[in-house]
Design brief:
alpha/beta; Rossmann fold; three-stranded antiparallel β-sheet; 8 helices; 18% strand; globular; binds zinc ion
């Protein structure tokens, strides 16, 4: 059985942490499309060069470029036993393109499941505004949920802990609003196909992970 996972989750939902852990446990690749785009640009691949020309002008990278990068990635042999997509698709157009790609690479033993980490806006905002990161090593803390041993000082390197400029309530709210607008159509798209499972994201990382494992 080939297990293909698509993860949906707002900023601060813990999607990155959960997908990396699951990929490791299942020994399948974790495909982070944001990271892939940056790698393609850094490596100067054909798609990377085109993407860079848009980014240099401050424009959004067109959907077909992102789709091209995902297609190349999913055709690689390490995806033969499945994979986890993190950050793609972000629109119905991309979801339809993904179906085509899966049609190219799959035979009958593939099972696609969409996992939606569903977290309330209040919880997400609490997590975002209490987040602090180390100026020197980048380690992430949270005043409420993951405090440093000594307030304001990094456990790992002794560096100063600071709040990112965009981790304020106002910015967080507008990012979450954008996320909601992008994602609601996708939730409907996948619910209608009966391949979506909702996971309550208003909990501790380990509880969420256990729940994911039981639902897949
Ligand atoms: Zn540090």
């Amino acid at each position: 059985m080939k297990n293909e996972f698509i993860f949906l989750g707002a900023p601060a939902s813990g999607k990155g942490t959960q997908t990396k852990k699951l990929a490791e446990d299942l020994s399948i690749p974790h495909i982070d499309t944001g990271g892939m785009l940056r790698t393609a640009v850094a490596d100067g691949t054909e798609f990377g060069k085109i993407a860079k020309s848009y980014m240099d002008q401050g424009k959004l990278v067109p959907a077909e470029i992102v789709v091209g990068i995902v297609r190349e990635r999913l055709h690689k042999s390490d995806c033969n036993n499945g994979f986890i997509l993190d950050g793609f698709p972000r629109s119905i157009e991309q979801a339809e393109a993904l179906e085509k790609i899966l049609g190219e690479i799959n035979n009958n033993d593939a099972k696609t499941l969409v996992v939606n980490i569903d977290t309330s806006e209040d919880v997400l905002i609490e997590r975002i505004i209490n987040r602090r990161s180390c100026k020197d090593c980048g380690a992430i803390y949270n005043i409420k949920f993951l405090p440093a041993k000594v307030a304001g000082i990094c456990d790992k390197c002794g560096g100063e802990l600071v709040q990112r400029k965009d981790d304020t309530e106002g910015v967080a709210k507008s990012r979450l609003e954008t996320y909601k607008m992008q994602t609601q159509p996708l939730i409907k798209f996948y619910s209608d196909k009966n391949i979506l499972v909702n996971i309550d994201g208003n909990r501790e990382v380990d509880q969420i992970y256990e729940d994911i494992k039981q639902n897949i």
